[in-house]
Amino acid sequence: MFKSLIEKNERRSQLSIMAQYLNTCFMISTVDDEYLISIEKGNVTNVEEGPFIMPSYIFKLTASKNEWLKFLQSTPQPGSHDIIAMLRRKVLKFEGDLHPLMSHLLYFKLLLASLRPAEGNNEN
Amino acid sequence: MKIEKEPITGNYGKFEIDGVKHRIYWEEAGEGIPLVCLHTAGSDGRQYRALLNDKKILKKYRVIVFDMPWHGKSSPPENSQVGHYKLSTESYISQIMSFIDGLELVKPVVMGCSIGGRIILHLAIHFPEKFKALIGLQSAGHLDPYYDISWLHRQDVHGGEVCGGIAYGLMAPTSPENDKFETMWHYMQGGPGIFKGDLFFYKFDGNIGTEIKKIDNSKCPIFLLTGEYDYSATPEETKSLADTIGIEIVKMKNVGHFPMSENPEEFLKYLHPVLEKIN
To answer: Can you tell me the ipTM of this complex?
Structure first.
């Protein structure tokens, strides 16, 4: 579901400029599945899919698979269009040291949104 | 290429708010019924650039938009210090009423968005006779905190970046990217701690409970419009407010928390019929 974050494209290359001093590792959880994502100088350098025995990460974003699928629609519905909107609905949980996330909030929002398919194609 | 000049005039003026000297910036355009517009928390009057350029509105209304103290081109008041700004209900009401009195506006229409959409409820409760009508955009009676607003003002986080990131998500994915970017950019230009200081009003001091029942729509007509993508003041929350007042809500499709700025074309479709009802 999040594996393709590793794929390079123009959109993600542009994003790395917004986070050129960011080096971190974070986890995205769909409850059943987990993904460890490494970022170096604003570029996604590794995406590892679980299960993990002793995963080490700085912060973690957890939502059900269904909620992530709603977020990843090409045009998401109100309340599913943004991670803070999901936080407000209490369907997404932020955990850990949130400094890398909050200091690069727009970067992470756009990075996750880069997984959305072009309009008219909602397959994920 | 010749410059296409807009019909907007910018002004600076000095007056006292609660006995303290202020230097305030405002923009205006049009002639007729004064329509005072209130910007959102942490932003400034540029959010209303489309209204100030709308020929249809300018034929009937004198649109006036001021930057709150500490915001946009308005100065902080005398003897200010960084980190001490907190907007209270009382001070917000004072600045609006002082501005209206200072410009000698008689029975203006006041339209506010977000914190502005909240303060118009306080105006409706306390001074209904002073206004021809009140328009609330993204109005809710109260808001419980749903994220830690201390992130908005920390020396180890760039305030402009985080405030812009918060504002970006409050807009609809369907709004035009250029307008969304400009709306976010205004947030990125706010002073340290100002957005957070405004949210003290929005999430704490300005919350209204049962006092909403005091609003009498027959004394001053109230109109409430809310964008469907707003998760800060949701259409459901505005509807609950409207039900208490006994009025209808206008739910705006394809816009979020900043209708006048993030998608002006769509917003004006909803605003024109409202403004036409006011005489």
So the answer is: 0.94
Q: How many domains does chain B divide into?
A: 1
Q: Please state, as a whole number, how many other Cβ atoms lie within 10 Å of the Cβ of residue B166.
A: 25
Question: Is residue B224 situated within a structural domain?
Answer: yes
Which residue in chain B has the smallest CA separation from A77? B229
Contact of B218 with chain A, judged by CB distance below 8 Å, is answered with no
Q: Would B168 be classed as within a structural domain?
A: yes
- Residue A13 and residue A15: Cα distance in Å, rounded? 5
A84 vs B166, B172, B184: nearest CB: B166
Strand (E) or helix (H) holding A117: none
Hey, are the CB atoms on A88 and B147 less than 8 Å from each other? yes
| DSSP calls for B4-60 | ---S-EEEEEEEEETTEEEEEEEEEE--SEEEEEE--TT--GGGGTTGGG-HHHHHH
What CATH number is given for A3-63+93-113 in this structure? Answer: 3.30.1050.10
Q: Does A104 touch chain B (CB under 8 A)?
A: yes
Instruction: Map out the domains of chain A as residue ranges.
Output: 3-63+93-113
Any idea what the CATH number is for the domain that residue B149 is in? 3.40.50.1820
Q: Are the beta carbons of B173 and A99 separated by less than 8 Å?
A: no
| Residues in B touching A83 (Cβ below 8 Å) | 169
- Per-residue pLDDT tens over the stretch A65-122: 999 999 999 999 999 999 999 999 999 999 999 999 999 999 999 999 999 997 755 5
* Average pLDDT by stretches of 10, chain B with 279 residues: 97 97 98 98 98 98 98 94 93 98 98 98 98 98 92 97 98 98 98 97 92 95 98 96 96 97 98 95
A102·B156 Cβ contact <8 A: no
- Residues 6+ positions from B168 with CB-CB distance below 8 Å: A82, A106, A109, B180, B184
Range of the domain at B49: 9-277
pTM of the model: 0.96
Say what percent of chain A tops pLDDT 70.
95
Phi, psi for residue B111 in degrees, rounded to 5: -125, 130
